[in-house]
Design a protein that fits this description.
heterodimer, A: about 300 residues, mainly alpha, Formate dehydrogenase/DMSO reductase fold, globular, B: about 300 residues, Alpha-Beta Plaits, two-stranded antiparallel ribbon
Chain lengths: ~300, ~300
Amino acid sequence: MASDLPAAPAYVSETDGPAPVTKAPPWGWLITADLMLSELSAGLFAVAALSNLIAHDVYGQVARIGFLMAFPLVIADLCCLVADLGDPLRFHHMLRVFKIRSPMSTGVWAISLFSLLALVCCGLAAAGKPAEFALMIAGGIGIAPALFVGGYKGVLFSATPQADWKDARWLSADLVTSAGMLGAAGLLLTALFLPVPGAVEGMRRAQIATLLVNLVFSTIMTAQALKHPPREIGAARLGEYLLMLAVGWIAPLVLTFAGGAVELTVAACLIIVAAALYRREVVMMPHRALRENPAALNGEGWPPERARQSG
Amino acid sequence: MNIISRIIQNRLLYPFRRPAPPPPRSAMGFFTDTTLCIGCKACEVACKQWNQLPADGFSWSGKSYDNTMMLSASTWRHVTFVEQFGADIDGNGAAMVPGGYSPSTASGSILETLLAQPKPGRWLMMSDVCKHCAQAPCQVACPTGAIIHNEFADVYIQNDICNGCGYCVAACPFGVITRSDVDGHAHKCTLCYDRQRDGMTPACAKACPTESIIFGPLEELRERARRRVIQLHERGQTGARLYGDQATETYPALHAFFLLLDQPSLYGLPDQPYFPQLHLGGDYLRMAVGIVLTVAAVVVPLLSYGF
């Protein structure tokens, strides 16, 4: 944007230089909860619908519980979303427009559609045997919106100039695969507790596959985010990443391969807990980057304690 | 019954009404010539006064004469102060004190010392404001349609529509928009839309005593800015440059643009701003890849076992 004129003679700034340019959005634990609940709900719904379509005889019972859980979870998620608004009584203003170039707008419409379908499927699942066929149809229709809900927040975050988010180009793929992983973990737990031995084995395999796929995207995403802007990662920070990787992906993978009921239960629980912690990391990325390395964001030094917050 | 009717009318139906927009008028904007700014903050005061914005307290920031520090929900104009002194001003390399003379030479005449400096210091000031981008990321991001381009092609937040989702805060590459803790809505400079509609100059430009802030039709402002840069170059200010007068590969033109004397980052502006929705298509595509792989990762194992 600036012209290519020679720079002015060198000077030494007496003061700290201006503040970092961007402002971190006013989002905190409510949005972390929203991210977790929406993706857990979307994952449960999508995996339940897919398994119900593939082999109803084997997975039907587990899928039914999946549909019954998906609806209250998405309602809890919507409550978090509304509560996080600056003016919650105006939540319906989101439905004034549909803007394809605004990921939040497309996401709101997708989550509205998904919650309606989740309500229908919840009702059909509660109705039991007589509604089995209708549940398969409604569930099948809901797969696409559910997976969109699972991933759109990645696009939403990436389409900002915020530190780390703007460089996390694979965040949406990371989140949607993570939603699938959460869905598989949730239904695996369900199959273990009901119990439905046939479904346990299928869900165990699905959990391994989704874990592996998500591990690839999470690694790409984290590497990208740390590369831009380049920064020195402290030992403690690196330790946090490695711990999360070990607890959230490697340990569940090993335990799921082991295959015993206890191991599978622990693995699924670890996945869910680590996913929640990971989402906290994702939401707080810009806040953390502004604290850690404001100079790289702005080209000028700035005391970390002055990292800007909105509000 | 009346209350329910009023709630339905005012709360539920009102935001969905779409009155016809006013006809477009010539695009207006700000040209801020930082070489003329004297840091008097008349613009900040005039803005607060006209727009009835509260004071931000009287805290001492320790950063030159700056006490508001940044644009916020209650500060729509912010004067940035950058104090700089020659690197070798003191033969011993001692840092200068903000007053402008070195303690090690304080025994002599301050004026003589300052005049003897091989590289005199400078004090840069810039009255910062919303950039009113020709295509604004905040407007694109806004999921309620509250942020619009008004008839003067300026970016305007409709306060009766905004629900405080905060996405515009995240989307602004200049850190302009802020969500207020008081009413929960996003706020920023309106370019005195109310004054403009009455044919008046925005309060800040009206109050500026040095014409550092100039308001007018964009084309006129751009021409004036180009002439001013040439004039400054002729006077030896080779660092003078315009910021935001024209679109770049990664960012549209700004309707509030600046004449700077050094790198934009020195003034708290991004050197190379880029439009955050630039990769939106690719981002959606990558999400689709993720969706396909998720479905495959669920379907293949389930098929291999349960079918």
